[in-house]
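Incident review: delayed structure delivery

Summary: a single-chain prediction request sat in the queue longer than the usual turnaround. Root cause was a stuck worker, restarted by the on-call engineer. No data loss occurred. The affected request and its eventual output are reproduced below so the record is complete for anyone auditing the incident later.

Affected input:
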Amino acid sequence: MRIKVCGVTRSRDATLAAKLGAWAVGMIFVPDTPRYLSLARAKRVRAAIPKGVLAVGVFRNPNLDDLSRAIDELDLDAVQLYGDTPSIHVFSSRTKLRFIEPKRSDADRRAGRGPSENARLKAWKTAASLKRRGKRVVLAGGLTPGNAAEAASAAKPWALDVSSGVERKSGIKDAALLRAFFAAVR
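Output delivered after worker restart:
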């Protein structure tokens, strides 16, 4: 199972994710989020992502100049776009993927909580349905070491995308949680 570790803000977290076998490492360029990286900070993270692991830039409604600058300066392998589009997409020279992420209620979002169990199960069913139709699906949102194996089994996605589920605080990955996530999936 492929795993993307997203919301990486530190070089050491990118290095550990790669050593554990991450398929991709995501860096977020959305200014009003806790995992936001400036280009200067992103360059340090990017330098820690080894060849063979995709460096993914995550953007919400980017303007083309900012997007082009990030792609060029960071030599990004893929771009994950979301915002005013109906779903999340990743574009790279190698593949087009569709991300399925459970919806969070406004109350959960305000409280900093992840998606509900019902929302996660619905997303897993959607991912499984798309996979049966031959789509490459990346399952994201609300994944933790405690539910990763169940999500992979239920949804049978092409990959899993984890961020806050392996953090001790926003943007700071916890090495033990990262290891546990990879072990649960494998």
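Verification: The beta strands are 2-5, 24-28, 54-60, 78-82, 88-92, 96-100, 137-140, 159-162, 167-169, 172-173.
Action items: add queue-age alerting; document worker restart procedure.
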